[in-house]
From TrEMBL:
UniProt xrefs under SUPFAM superfamilies: D-aminoacid aminotransferase-like PLP-dependent enzymes
Residue spans crossing the bilayer: none
UniProt-listed Pfam families: Aminotran_4
Lineage of producing organism: Bacteria, Bacillati, Actinomycetota, Actinomycetes, Mycobacteriales
NCBIfam families in the cross-refs: PRK07849.1-1
Gene source species: Williamsia serinedens
Keyword Lyase: yes
Listed name of the protein: 4-amino-4-deoxychorismate lyase
Length: 299
């Protein structure tokens, strides 16, 4: 589906072979959960899309058109699969074709999909598909993780903004490599650490720690992606009388915490039940935490 709301045949090619999304990962994306026929946390995702596009010097995304496309996407998904079936909605926004990237003049052309566009326009589309099968199990059973170093300091985001540490870019090859390494080690996921040993994030999730009545997550200044679900959670938690805090954490802080979760837009709350081979005790308030996350994404 294009971001102007045109529903395309999923079996008909849409991208050109030289689209910079495919050949260089030069673009940004967002992933939203569709539940009960409605995409969740839309405003925060579109805000982050806008910030990521700005970091990559992409044209400012038309957020109204994206909202229209999301509405069409969620409706189409519900009509074909039923409102009770969860969906994964992915927004993709790239610089366009390598032969005529954004900002260069190019002749008008018609793609085989029948959609007319300027070949030097940014590529903008969304897809809606099923939620991965693993999601249901990790929501219920939790996940086993290992810590892996990213190999650079928490100062990198400030010293080298061109590294795009705060943007959700399509360049996910190293994240996927980390996930494969975890699988090869017999565990489910990874928590990155900095060269100083500070906790950062998971390849696809935000790290959340519970200590007493306080929820803690590493600050974005340490080079982590701002989490949309984490932001919603913190806002809801504060309304419920809990404290929230952004501060640096060490692996030892995870071991002694009352609970550790990986938070993401589609998987939602996944409890870390094993960390570097250590079996983490189940938090006394695990169900309360999961319910709080569910409540947060209702807004």
């Amino acid at each position: 589906m294009t971001h102007d709301g045109a529903v395309l045949d999923p079996d008909v090619p849409f991208l050109h072979a030289d689209d910079l999304a495919a050949v260089r990962g030069d673009g940004v994306f967002e992933t939203l959960l569709v539940r009960d026929g409605r995409a969740r946390n839309v405003s925060r995702h579109l805000d982050r899309l806008q910030n990521s596009a700005r970091a990559l010097d992409l044209p400012a995304p038309d957020l109204d058109r994206w909202r229209t496309a999301i509405t069409t996407g969620q409706r189409t998904w519900a009509e074909k699969n039923g409102r009770a079936t969860e969906g994964l909605l992915r927004i993709v926004y790239s610089r366009g074709r390598e032969s005529a990237p954004v900002g260069q003049a190019a002749p008008r052309e018609r793609a085989e999909t029948g959609i007319t566009r300027e070949s030097n326009e940014a590529t903008a589309y969304l897809t809606v598909g099923p939620v991965p099968a693993r999601v249901a199990s990790v929501r219920t059973d939790g996940t086993s993780v290992i810590t892996l170093t990213r190999g650079y300091s928490v100062d990198l985001a400030a010293l080298a903004p061109w590294q795009l540490l705060g943007a959700k870019t399509l360049s996910y090859a190293t994240n996927m490599a980390a996930q494969r390494h975890a699988t090869a080690q017999g565990v489910d996921d990874v928590i990155y650490t900095s060269s100083e040993g500070q906790v950062l994030e998971s390849p696809r999730s935000t790290v959340i720690v519970l200590n007493g009545d306080t929820l803690i997550t590493p600050p974005v200044e340490d080079g982590v992606l701002p989490g949309t679900t984490q932001q919603a959670l913190f806002e809801t938690a504060e309304k419920e009388g809990l404290r929230t805090e952004y501060r640096s954490l060490r692996v030892a802080d995870l071991i002694v915490a009352d609970g550790v979760w990986l938070l993401s837009s589609v998987t939602l709350a996944t409890r870390v039940r094993e960390l570097n081979g250590y079996e983490m005790p189940e938090p006394a308030r695990a169900k309360d935490f999961a319910a709080l996350v569910e409540k947060a994404i209702e807004d």
